[in-house]
């Protein structure tokens, strides 16, 4: 073997060793660059509704007796959130019935939540109630409806208009039929009997029909498509 041949062979061995080292290093880098792609954990606040219905027109019964009709554009039911609730974020319209299925009152709000375990309604945004039996009209921006205590209450500005009087106050409490109610921190034209919702037997002063009509809010019933009966 000549000197030149020995020198060439030595260079070839060095190149082979270098390539081997580079290959091992590249393999090591490829192993360390592997990333595991995982989705973030799902929390209760991220959980979607168990049921979402659109164009709802349904009858609601309590203890086997039909009590209400609900009309809404969207109805979400979520049992994951604590407390569990029904959500009506596109507005809601109620018809309240008596035992003979006669309409007693109309109720509407821009947004509503029903906490089924507490039987508590929370109405918010342009809350309007019209009692067919006594002509009372209620207006507020927030109202709670307790199905266990069978009462309505609000701690924000409320306006109560009857065929005889008009009352305003920041505290309101009433039974479900709105026959007996109280208005606190109030102002307006009324007599003491009106504060408790009692009717006097003596003759009431007449009011201008045009003034009475101008105080009535407009009750707009949403369009609906679906029909279903539910139990509270």
Q: What's the architecture in CATH terms?
A: Sandwich
Tally of separate domains: 1
Looking at the structure, the CATH topology is: lipopolysaccharide transport protein A fold
List SSEs in N-to-C order: HEEEEEEEEEEEEEEHHE
Name the overall outline. globular
Radius of gyration, Cα only, in angstroms?
Answer: 35 Å
Quick tags:
18% helix, globular, lipopolysaccharide transport protein A fold, single chain, 43% strand, 6-stranded antiparallel barrel, 3 helices, 15 strands, 232 residues, alpha+beta
Which helices and strands, and how do they pair?
Layout lengths: L2 H30 L18 E12 L2 E14 L6 E4 L3 E6 L5 E7 L1 E5 L4 E12 L5 E10 L4 E4 L3 E4 L4 E4 L1 E5 L5 E4 L2 E3 L2 H4 L13 H7 L10 E6 L1
Parallel strand pairs: 1-15
Antiparallel strand pairs: 1-2, 2-3, 2-4, 3-6, 4-5, 5-7, 6-7, 7-8, 8-9, 8-10, 9-12, 10-11, 11-14, 12-13
Would you mind describing this structure in some detail?
With 232 residues, the chain is an alpha+beta fold. The protein has three helices and 15 strands. It has a six-stranded antiparallel barrel. The radius of gyration is 35 Å and the shape is globular.
What's the gist of this structure?
With 232 residues, the chain is an alpha+beta fold. It has helices spanning 3-32, 192-195, 209-215, and strands at 51-62, 65-78, 85-88, 92-97, 103-109, 111-115, 120-131, 137-146, 151-154, 158-161, 166-169, 171-175, 181-184, 187-189, 226-231.
């Amino acid at each position: 073997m000549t000197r030149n041949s020995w020198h060439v062979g030595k260079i070839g061995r060095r190149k082979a060793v270098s390539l081997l080292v580079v290959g091992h290093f590249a393999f090591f880098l490829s192993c360390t660059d592997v990333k595991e792609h995982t989705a973030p954990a799902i929390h209760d606040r991220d959980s979607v509704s168990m049921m979402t219905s659109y164009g709802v027109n349904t009858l609601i019964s309590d203890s086997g007796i039909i009590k209400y009709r609900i009309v809404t554009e969207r109805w979400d039911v979520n049992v994951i959130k604590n407390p569990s609730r029904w959500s009506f974020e596109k507005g809601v319209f109620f018809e309240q019935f008596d035992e003979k299925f006669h309409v007693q009152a109309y109720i509407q709000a821009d947004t509503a939540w029903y906490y089924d375990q507490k039987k508590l309604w929370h109405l918010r945004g342009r809350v309007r109630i019209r009692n067919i039996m006594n002509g009372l009209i209620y207006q507020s921006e927030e109202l709670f409806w307790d199905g266990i205590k069978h009462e309505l209450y609000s701690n924000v500005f409320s306006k109560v208009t009857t065929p005889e009087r008009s009352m305003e106050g920041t505290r309101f409490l009433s039974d479900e039929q709105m026959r007996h109610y109280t208005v606190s921190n109030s102002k307006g034209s009324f007599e003491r009997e009106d504060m408790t919702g009692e009717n006097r037997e003596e003759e009431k002063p007449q009011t201008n029909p045009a003034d009475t009509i101008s105080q009535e809010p407009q009750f707009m019933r949403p369009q609906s498509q679906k029909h279903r009966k539910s139990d509270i």
